[in-house]
């Protein structure tokens, strides 16, 4: 049964096999766009293998698939080449209620905008390589919205087990890469303000806004309780004051975020910062 959806997505088909919709002609069209124009005399995809692109539970806001294309090509010099290309396909989840709850349509639209409009601009002004996979295409087709990326596992990348989590060194590496990203956005803002304004206008806020306040407040509170429980467990020496009162600063808020939302966000940010071990803050 197909249900027509508003906004970004086109259809949700609850009965389909999510890992079997990427047809050979679809994959071949994408790959042909990426191949050098004069390299091949003929280029075909014989067949494709399609399966999960991540472990169960690692992702809930989209369907991630690994699509392996078995290719056959003949170059201009007459030589025949047989090879495989692995791609990552991201699709919208099919359940309309989950899409509405997690605001998946807006999130997917933002991700398409990031790969088509934002990352290319940041790469042009960046003095260093940005940690993003190559995007082959991002937009819509007959099955709805899609993003097709290079498969980084072919370069040795592996997802960390979310049940184990990241080490402190890994967290530092992530923060450093995020710092580069934020630095580039500031460079764009100050050196190219008009272009920065155009980019910002294409992005929709999906977390710190009135529409998402109820859902994300609960989510943040749950995460906060988990963080505090972890700190209590490790606070054997009693160095951390985990029971003291938390005072919220109701200073002027001139942002576009509603006051009650901004207040809750500021309060939670201070709680987390207040209880971080000082040795980590100083490193």
Point out poorly predicted stretches: 1-17, 246-283
CATH architecture of the domain at 24-160: 2-Layer Sandwich
Mean pLDDT: 78
SSE string = EEHEEEHHEEHHHHH
> If strands are numbered along the chain, what order do they take across the biggest sheet?
3-4-5-7-6
Major pleated sheet: 5 strands, antiparallel
Percent in helix? 40-55%
CATH level 1 name of the domain at 24-160: Alpha Beta
CATH topology name of the domain at 24-160:
Phosphorylase Kinase, domain 1
Strand content: 15-25%
Computed structural class: alpha+beta
Number of strands: 7
N-end to C-end Cα span: 55 Å
Radius of gyration: 23 Å
Shape: globular
Helix count, DSSP H or I runs of 4 or more residues: 8
What would you say this structure looks like, in words?
With 283 residues, the protein is an alpha+beta fold. It has a domain at 24-160: Phosphorylase Kinase, domain 1, CATH 3.30.200. It is built from eight helices and seven strands. The strands form two sheets. It has a five-stranded antiparallel sheet, sandwiched between helices. Helix 6 packs parallel to helix 7 (259-274). The chain is globular and about 75 Å long. The protein starts with a strand and ends with a helix.
């Amino acid at each position: 049964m197909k249900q027509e959806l508003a906004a970004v997505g086109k259809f949700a088909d609850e009965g389909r096999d999510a890992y079997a919709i990427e047809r050979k002609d679809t994959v071949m069209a994408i790959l042909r766009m990426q191949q050098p124009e004069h390299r091949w005399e003929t280029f075909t995809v014989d067949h494709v293998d399609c399966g999960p692109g991540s472990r169960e539970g690692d992702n809930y806001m989209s369907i991630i698939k690994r699509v392996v294309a078995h290719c056959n090509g003949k170059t201009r010099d007459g030589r025949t080449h047989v090879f495989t290309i692995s791609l990552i396909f991201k699709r919208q989840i099919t359940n309309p209620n989950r899409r509405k709850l997690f605001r998946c349509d807006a999130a997917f639209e933002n991700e398409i905008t990031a790969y088509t409009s934002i990352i290319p601009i940041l790469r042009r002004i960046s003095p260093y390589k940005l940690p993003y996979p190559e995007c082959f295409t991002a937009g819509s087709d007959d099955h709805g919205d899609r993003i097709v990326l290079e498969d980084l596992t072919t370069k040795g990348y592996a997802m960390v087990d979310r049940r184990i989590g990241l080490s402190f060194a890994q967290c530092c590496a992530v923060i450093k890469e995020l710092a580069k990203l934020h630095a580039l956005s500031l460079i764009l803002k100050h050196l190219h303000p008009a272009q920065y304004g155009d980019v910002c206008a294409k992005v929709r806020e999906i977390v710190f806004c009135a529409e998402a306040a109820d859902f994300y407040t609960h989510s943040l509170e749950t995460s906060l309780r988990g963080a505090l429980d972890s700190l209590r467990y490790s606070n054997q020496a009693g160095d951390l004051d985990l029971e003291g009162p938390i005072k919220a600063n109701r200073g002027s808020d001139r942002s576009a975020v509603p006051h009650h939302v901004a207040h809750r966000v500021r309060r939670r940010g201070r709680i987390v910062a207040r209880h971080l071990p000082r040795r980590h803050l100083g490193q």
